[in-house]
Design a protein that fits this description.
This protein is an alpha/beta fold and 478 residues long. It folds into three domains: 2-146 and 271-335, FAD/NAD(P)-binding domain (3-Layer(bba) Sandwich), CATH 3.50.50; 150-268, FAD/NAD(P)-binding domain (3-Layer(bba) Sandwich), CATH 3.50.50.60; 348-467, Enolase-like, domain 1. It has helices at 15-26, 42-45, 48-65, 82-105, 182-193, 213-224, 319-335, 383-387, 416-428, 433-437, 447-468; strands at 2-11, 31-35, 112-114, 117-121, 124-127, 131-140, 144-146, 159-160, 174-178, 197-201, 228-230, 234-241, 244-250, 256-260, 263-266, 270-272, 306-308, 348-351, 356-361, 372-378, 394-400, 406-413. The strands form five sheets. Strands 1, 2, 3, 4, 5, 6 and 17 form a seven-stranded mixed beta sheet that branches. A five-stranded parallel beta sheet has the order 8-15-9-10-11. The protein is globular, with a radius of gyration of 25 Å.
């Protein structure tokens, strides 16, 4: 068995792993990057980029078909050629993958180890059966994988996950989608807009990862105008009938209904890829899901020389966070035991369905509701949104009632990818709603909708402070 000794070993060559690898090398350390699967990152191959390509094609067709209210008419009917759409998505996807591979191909080849790693002890890794790597520090960046519940496996080759969508040669005619999180919403709506008959089933009103009920309900209402969506589905039976996936369920109107499908897309969640690492040999503490306990400000597991980064840590499953975590983990792994903690960037997530969904800052469930005010804007009446015929959705911004400090936001609506960034930047800079209202807003733009919500929050802050302010004593003789 080949013996290798380095300063830092990084397990996983995704976005987080590559960031950790680069950071440790820039610190002047001897580093190896261990990967047993394909290079190219989840984002480029099966995640962020191909899903947005599919959505862009679907939205283009949807928008072209929606011009009659503006007086744009014609006799030529547009439709999606599923084979051509998916071939286009794969071609463009391959462009992004090649960009990643160009970078990994440039890494010194003696720093790359192809194979699957497992721990022999806290500072020793075995890679398959051919290499033993002794490292001062280890960064775990093994990513996540789709979860397939056992009761779906009866669908056999008619069952797909988000990882399989872009290998389809053509679109199904009918598709059942289980889950209504970010991946399910993006792929489900894209399918629907491309002409697929979509039925989406979720549980416990979990839609778009939204926890603010009015915002979530506005999203559900908007999506139900395009395809069947049951946010709290009651599934009575799953079966195969004449080779077709068959679902018997309680419909939205309370009746029992049975539908057959060409495909079943399961998008009910992803889990960290950690089982094969044999973490029990490291003696680090794990949570009840088998994920190492770590400090989110340093990515360090306890006081050990093991660091976490990316989707495998089970916290922020987004590429931007994976890159940040990878760099932080790589920096600290290189400097161990001189580990530094940093202030993390504001939590921020976007779903690119239409209306778009954004969650920024403090989790709505964690807010102190007694000390929080909410500013609201409905995009149904917002000027620019109506001009664009994208006037669906609702935005809530949250502020501390006494200080006016902006705390976060949840919303669905047009251009939330942009409004979300403005809110995230304001949170990162510790601005109050009053500070934000002093900034310029042009007319007519969708950002004016954000200003409407900020004005309401600011007014509520003044009212709350007035209610809690002590009464001034009346001067004698007045």
């Amino acid at each position: 068995m080949k013996q290798i000794k380095v300063d830092v070993a990084v397990i996983g060559a995704g976005t987080a792993g590559m960031a950790a690898y680069r950071a440790a090398r820039q610190a002047g350390k001897q580093v190896v990057l261990i990967e047993g699967a394909e290079f190219g990152t989840t984002c480029a191959r099966v995640g962020c980029m191909p899903s947005k390509l599919l959505l862009a094609a679907a939205n283009g067709l949807h928008d072209a078909k929606a011009q009659a209210p503006r007086g744009i008419e014609g006799t030529h009917a547009l439709e999606a050629n599923g084979e051509h759409v998916l071939a286009y998505v794969r071609r463009e996807r391959d462009h992004f993958v090649k960009g990643v591979l160009k970078e990994t191909d440039a890494f010194p080849q003696d720093t790359i180890i192809r194979g699957f790693a497992r721990f022999e002890s806290r500072n020793v890794l075995l890679v398959d059966d051919f290499a033993r790597v002794e490292a001062t520090s280890v960064v775990i960046a093994t990513g996540s994988a789709s979860v397939i519940p056992d009761d779906f496996k009866l669908f056999g080759d008619r069952l797909i996950t988000s990882d399989d969508v872009f290998d389809l040669k053509t679109l199904p005619k009918r598709c059942a989608v289980f889950g209504a999180g970010p991946i399910a919403l993006e792929l489900g709506q894209a399918f629907a807009r491309l002409g697929v008959d979509v039925f989406m089933f979720s549980q416990k009103n979990q839609v778009g990862a939204l926890t603010d009920t009015p915002v979530r309900d506005a999203l559900i209402e908007a999506l139900q105008q395009e395809f069947y969506l049951d946010p709290d589905a009651t599934i009575l039976e799953k079966s195969m009938q004449d080779g077709e996936p068959t679902i018997r369920f309680k419909a939205l109107d309370g009746t029992e209904r049975t539908e057959r499908f060409d495909l079943v897309l399961v998008a009910t969640g992803r889990k960290p890829v950690l089982t094969s690492l044999q973490l029990e040999k490291t003696d680090i503490e794990l949570n009840d899901k088998g994920v190492p306990l770590f400090n989110e400000q340093s990515m360090q597991c306890g006081d050990s020389s093991i660091f976490m980064a990316g989707d495998c840590d089970g916290t922020r499953p987004f590429l931007s966070d994976a890159a940040d975590e990878g760099k932080l983990a790589g920096d600290n792994a290189a400097c161990f035991p001189d580990v530094q903690s940093v202030k993390r960037k504001v939590p921020f997530s976007i779903v690119f369905c239409e209306p778009q969904v954004a969650s920024v800052g403090a989790s709505y469930d964690d807010l102190d509701k007694q000390m929080t005010v909410t500013g609201t804007v409905s995009f149904e009446t917002q000027g620019r949104s109506r001009v664009l015929r994208q006037n669906r959705g609702l935005l809530h911004v949250y502020a501390h009632s006494q200080t006016g400090k902006l705390l976060g936001a949840q919303g669905c609506g047009p251009a939330l990818e942009h409004l979300g960034h403005l809110i995230a930047w304001a949170l990162q800079l510790d601005l109050s709603v009053e500070d934000m209202l002093k900034l310029p807003f042009y007319h007519p733009v969708i950002e004016e909708g954000l200003r409407t919500a900020l004005k309401e929050a600011n007014k509520k802050c003044f009212e709350a402070r007035a209610q809690t302010a002590p009464e001034l004593p009346t001067a004698a003789g007045c």
